[in-house]
Amino acid sequence: MNLTDIALLNLRRKKAKAAFVLAGLLTGVATMVALMGLGSALTHEINHKLEKYGANILITPKSDQLNMSYGGLSLGGLSFDAKEIYQADLAAIRKIKNSANVAAVGPMVLGRTEAAGRPVLLAGVDFSEASILKPWWKFAGKEPLDGQVAPGAEAARLLGLSPGGRVSLGGREFTVSGVLEPTGSQDDHLLFMPLAPAQQLLGKPGLVSLVEVAALCKDCPIEAMVTQINQALPGAKAVAIQSVVKGRMEALAHFKRFALGVSLLVALLGGLVVLVTMMGSVKERTGEIGIFRAIGFRSGQVMRVVLTEALLLSAAAGLLGYLAGHLAGELALPLFSQDGGGHLAWDPSLAGAALALALICGSAASLYPAWMASRLDPAQALRTL
C-alpha cells in the first residue's frame, strides 16, 4: 500500500469531512467559472452593442489646415495642401493586419452647392455603411436613393423642404425622400444623398472628403489600427475618436475587474474553508498519525499523505466546479442579458484556470495542516489513543 492508497482510504473513512472540503472548493471554483463566463458573454454582448454607437476612427486628407471651428461655430481656416482621398484606395483598409476588427467603412464626400438660392453643404453618404456608423439616424420619410435628397432637420426648416417636395441642386431637380430627424449635430444642417450621385454633382468622381470607420476593439488596441490605417493610406490621416474609444474600453474593463474581484474573494473564502477543515481533520487524527510515526513513517511521508488528500479533493473540485459554474452561468445569463438569450461557450482555458485555481487554493490551504501533522511527536500522539 503506497501513500496515495492511504490518502484514498482516509477520504473514504472521512466522507463528511471530505465532502465539506470538496463543497468549499467547488463553490469557489464554480463561482469563479460562472462569473468569468458571464463576464465574457456579457462583454461580448456589450461590445457588440457598443459598436452600434458609431464610428471610432476618422480618416481625413492630410493637410496643413488649422481647424478654426468649435461647437458648430466655424471661423474658417487656412489650407495649404488639402487633397481628397481616392475612394479606390479605401480597399486597403480591409487588408490591414487587424482587418477582421473593421466593422464598417463609411466614405463621405462633402461640397458646397446651392438650394433655393441658399448656399448649403451637400454630403454624399454610403447609406449601407451608415446604418452601422450612425444607427441613431432616423428619417421622416425614406432614405434617399439615386435622384433623391434628404435634408437635415435644420436645413429642411430653412429651405422649406418636406418629404415628396422638389429641390434644385446644381441645375438638377431632386425629390425630397425624407427629412433626417434632429440629431443635435452638424448633420442637422446638411443635405444628404447617395455617394455616387453626390460625387457627380460636386465634380468629385471617385473622391471622398473623409472616412468614418467603426472598429471592433475588444481584441486589439485602437492605436494599433490607427497606425495600420495610416500606413495603408499614406495620403490620409487617421485619428481615433478618443471619447468613444475610452468610453467603450472603460465600460468593458470595469465589468472584467468586478468579475475578477468577486472571483478572487470567493476563492479566498474557499481556501479558508479548506484550511479550517484540514486543521480539524489533523487534530482528530492525532492518534492515527502517532501510529504512522510509530511504525516508521517519516514526517515527510505524513505530510505527503495530508497533501495528497487535499490535491485529490482539489482536482475533483476543479473539474466539478467548472461543470457546475458553467451550468450556473447558463441559467443566470438570461437574467443579465438584455436580449434574454445567448449561451456560454465551453472554454478550455477557463477549465484549465478552474483546475489550477482549485489545486493552488487546496494545496496552499493544506500546507500548514500538513506541516502540523508532520511535526506531531509520536509518543504524545500515541497517548491520545
Automatic annotation (TrEMBL):
Transmembrane intervals:
20-42, 258-282, 302-324, 344-368
Membrane topology listed for this record: Multi-pass membrane protein
Location of the ABC3 transporter permease C-terminal domain: 262-378
Spell out the family assignment given in the record's similarity comment.
Answer: Belongs to the ABC-4 integral membrane protein family.
The protein's UniProt keywords, in alphabetical order, are: Cell membrane, Membrane, Transmembrane, Transmembrane helix
Molecular function in Gene Ontology: transmembrane transporter activity
InterPro entries xrefs: ABC3_permease_C (IPR003838), MacB_PCD (IPR025857), Macrolide_Exporter_MacB (IPR050250)
Question: What GO CC annotations are associated with the protein?
Answer: plasma membrane
> In which broad location class does this protein mainly occur, judging by the first location in its UniProt entry?
membrane
Output this protein's name. ABC transporter permease
Q: Name one Pfam family in it.
A: FtsX
